[in-house]
Amino acid sequence: MASSEIETLTQALARLPGLGPRSARRAVLHLIKRRETALEPLLKALGVVSETLATCSVCGNVDTTDPCGVCADPRRDGRSICVVEEVADLWALERSRLFPGKFHVLGGRLSALDGVRPEDLTIDSLIRRVEAGGIDEVVLAMNATLEGQTTAHYVAERIERFPVRVTQLAHGLPVGGELDYLDEGTLAQALRARRPLG
Amino acid sequence: MASSEIETLTQALARLPGLGPRSARRAVLHLIKRRETALEPLLKALGVVSETLATCSVCGNVDTTDPCGVCADPRRDGRSICVVEEVADLWALERSRLFPGKFHVLGGRLSALDGVRPEDLTIDSLIRRVEAGGIDEVVLAMNATLEGQTTAHYVAERIERFPVRVTQLAHGLPVGGELDYLDEGTLAQALRARRPLG
User: Fold this and answer.
1) Pick the residue with more confidence: B49 or B95?
2) Per the domain annotation, does B69 fall within a domain?
3) A111-140 pLDDT, tens digit each
4) Of B12, B19, B95, which has the smallest distance from its Cβ to A41's Cβ?
5) Which chain B residues have a beta carbon less than 8 Å from that of A16?
6) Do B38 and A15 make contact, defined as CB atoms within 8 angstroms?
7) Residue B191 included in any domain
8) Is residue A134 assigned to a domain?
């Protein structure tokens, strides 16, 4: 059917999350039929990113510059650092445009099961940033999973001795969440953390 | 959040069929985290295809060689030509490995609505292939849609004057199809084309 070159491209695309062999084939046909408007732009964009891709030496974000766009932005409040597990989490928070400070990407979460220890994450580099001073608040924004929360507690303990405020994202009902459909863990969390009405 | 280069790549990926803005972002993160094993292979495969992509001057297939792999294969039976609407249809038939002959890609279907006329398709080039001789059978494998069938009839009429057998894919119940769930058109077709039992 298709030459081995086209087959290779199909397989490379099929390995992307969200695409399987079938949709990768459709994508390849799409690219092939639209050489100027789809294939060439994608090739160029990939090439540029491949050439300039860098991990930020300050926060661990991935960007085409080092320090990354967030760290280099003078309008961001350098006094608060939001600690996240993965680059994807940083991007998710950035899309919401709610956090005006800087970030720190741990590169994962502590996990006895997967054998991830503190030294496998960028916790030491976070401590050095806090140690260097000029920071008022560290916001722990790990996932609300067992491993995420274990990591949060570990990081909180390590920062304890510095004069910074350590906070954590609130846990409770998601917006639009209906009690009837929520799991018990979320309900328990929401009840425990109940607050006086405005 | 991400630099404009990464944003450009996300948008290029989001335009692929089967990917939206959200899954394109996930794909970009996947590529960025796996630079050696995902980004570079995809970049290379795209580059090779972009450089070598060619439309077969014989049958209209898209491949990295001209004539394409199917036309150049000496083991294929050049006496039968299977006529399809699109390259995707040729690939679908090739995946089934059921047709041992060669192909002809029309590049679309006749459509009064979309203003597609016979001269917009590669019908003349098909006629020239038939005229050149050495062909016993032309298999019409257009889609079982109104426009596909109109196209099939038009092509059949044009080939009529040559001494070749013109056949068409059978229409009827799909394998595993339950009468109860099939549309009336398919049922009518299957009934009309009923055959004596083995």
Assistant:
1) B49
2) yes
3) 999 999 999 999 999 999 999 999 999 999
4) B12
5) 13, 19, 27, 30-31, 38, 42
6) yes
7) no
8) yes
Comparing A174 with A151, the larger pLDDT belongs to A151
Considering only alpha carbons, which residue of chain A is nearest residue B21? A18
Of the candidates A6, A29, A50, which has its C-beta nearest B64's C-beta? A6
Phi, psi of B144, deg, nearest 5 = -85, 45
Residue B121, domain extent: 62-168
Are A14 and A86 within one domain? no
Q: How far apart are CA B96 and CA A9, in angstroms?
A: 20
| CB-based contact A81:A62 (threshold 8 Å) | no
CB-based contact A1 B62, cutoff 8 Å: no
A143 and A86 in a single domain? The answer is yes
Instruction: For A44-65, write each residue's pLDDT tens digit.
Output: 999 999 999 999 999 999 998 9
Is residue A61 within 8 Å of residue A103, measured between CB atoms?
A: yes
- Does any domain span residue B33? yes
Q: How many domains does chain B have?
A: 2
ipTM of the complex: 0.76
Task: Provide the pLDDT for residue A147.
Answer: 92
- Residues A87, A17, single domain; the answer is no
